[in-house]
Design brief:
- This protein has about 280 residues and is α/β, with parallel strands linked by helices.
- It is built from 8 helices and 14 strands.
- Helix 4 links the parallel strand 4 and strand 5.
- The radius of gyration is 25 Å and the shape is elongated.
- The model has no long low-confidence stretch (mean pLDDT about 90).
Length: about 280
């Protein structure tokens, strides 16, 4: 593993600090940790890291930083980030564990050229564990016991630019803002055709020839299962099937990319989803 040093933004929510540090430790040779915190969180961060990671070399910054975010606090916090970067002797990785909005603003400004991560933990376990867990058993608000299969926490990369479109079709799946909806080949072809038409089409227009030509020119749809003799007739049948699958997805998906009928026109619920 490549040696690195980790700069961590840390407030008084400590679970992401220890979980994120362990996840990084699993995949990186961490030579030193720089904890950028505040006066109120200083001792808590130190106590937890010494408890869970006694083998790590750690520098703590924040004894002169109040969480209120006054100009003086911002000056001290910025100075601490500068010092940590100056002291680092190995490649730097950033971790946004917790902190106030003004801390995150300064941290992101000064760390935007370095790889950075945040910790994503399933909501029901956010306050229940200090280290990554898998196949965990928990209880819901009613006291029912349940088992969660798989990992509870993961590291999510932070990046300023995302090169993928907001909405697209790939491998017979709708992908919208990172959420996926699996379709049959013909459903995917028709939804993709709707997107190529700008997110709306009129049932009175002739679409069969254009749709079949679209399928024949597309390697994913160039089969008899995609082609049709009457596009609108088949599209009407598929709309309800597509919408029923979308209804099972994340609410943001349902809100924006379901297909609606407006008179003789079919359209995405939010045509701006294509932007």
């Amino acid at each position: 593993m490549t040696p690195c040093e980790v700069l961590i933004e840390c407030g008084t929510t400590y679970q992401p600090l220890t979980i994120g540090l362990q996840l990084l430790k699993n995949t990186h040779d961490i030579r030193r940790v720089h904890v950028l915190t505040t006066f109120s969180a200083y001792e808590g961060a130190m106590t937890l890291i010494e408890e869970f990671f006694p083998d790590l070399s750690v520098i703590y910054y924040g004894e002169f930083v109040d969480g209120g975010g006054r100009l003086e606090d911002q000056r001290e916090y910025r100075s601490n980030v500068e010092s940590a970067l100056r002291f680092a002797k190995h490649p730097v990785i950033g971790l946004v564990a917790s902190g106030t909005n003004w801390m995150t603003w300064i941290f992101s400004q000064m760390m935007h050229t370095y790889p950075c991560y945040y910790v994503k933990t399933r909501k029901e376990f956010e306050d229940k564990c200090f280290l990554p867990q898998e196949n965990i058993i928990g209880t819901d608000d009613e006291g029912n016991v349940y088992r969660h299969e798989g990992v509870v926490s993961i590291l999510m990369p932070l990046q300023g630019e995302v090169n993928t479109p907001r909405l697209y079709i790939r491998d017979r799946k709708i992908s919208f803002l990172g959420h996926e909806v699996a379709l049959t080949m013909q459903e995917a072809a028709m939804y993709d055709y709707l997107l190529r038409c700008g997110g709306e089409l009129h049932s009175e227009d002739e679409h069969t020839s254009a749709y079949n030509a679209f399928c024949e020119s597309h390697e994913d749809y160039d089969t008899e299962r995609s082609l049709v003799e009457d596009f609108i007739s088949r599209f009407r049948q598929n709309v309800s099937k597509i919408n029923s699958k979308i209804e099972e997805a994340h609410p943001i998906v349902v809100r924006h990319i379901s297909i609606e009928r407006d008179g003789e026109k079919y359209r995405l619920r939010t045509v701006e989803s294509l932007c």
